[in-house]
Write a structure and sequence with these properties.
This protein has 124 residues and is α+β, with helices and mostly antiparallel strands. It is built from 2 helices and 6 strands; from the N terminus they run αββαββββ. The mean pLDDT is 95.
Length: 124
């Protein structure tokens, strides 16, 4: 029997830098993350933005807080190919209930490939 693993753990994301206002996150691009045209799947890019926002919130509070995504909007600007995708999450507002972030996603040449707004609700 297979043990359940949370979706985000299978992506293999890693925080590469912590900033005063957020974090940088890297994703190693694997063949199973590509779409049928050979570029990084849009759902994976959305997941990268969502997780980068979560890491920024965790960094801000210096602990893991129970929370859930309430809104996610992604503008896709260019396809991502190569071996790595990078995300830079900026925590714009951390309130008592909602946290709002902006996440910019780059290809390995550091060209802007997507930009996202992600809102999380704190559950406690």
């Amino acid at each position: 029997m297979m043990e359940a693993m949370a979706y985000e753990h299978g992506l293999g994301l890693r925080v590469t830098r912590k900033h005063r206002d957020g974090v940088s996150v890297a994703l190693s691009i694997r063949p199973d993350l590509l779409n049928s045209t050979g570029v990084l799947h849009g759902g994976v890019i959305a997941s990268l933005a969502d997780e980068a926002a979560w890491f920024a919130i965790r960094h801000h509070f210096q602990e893991e807080r129970p929370c859930t995504t309430t809104e996610l909007k992604v503008n896709y600007l260019r396809p991502i190919v190569g071996s790595t995708a990078l995300a830079r999450a900026y925590l714009l507002r951390a309130g008592k209930t909602l946290c709002v972030t902006r996440v910019d996603v780059f290809d390995e040449q550091r060209r802007l490939a997507a930009t996202s707004t992600v809102t999380y609700m704190l559950l406690t």
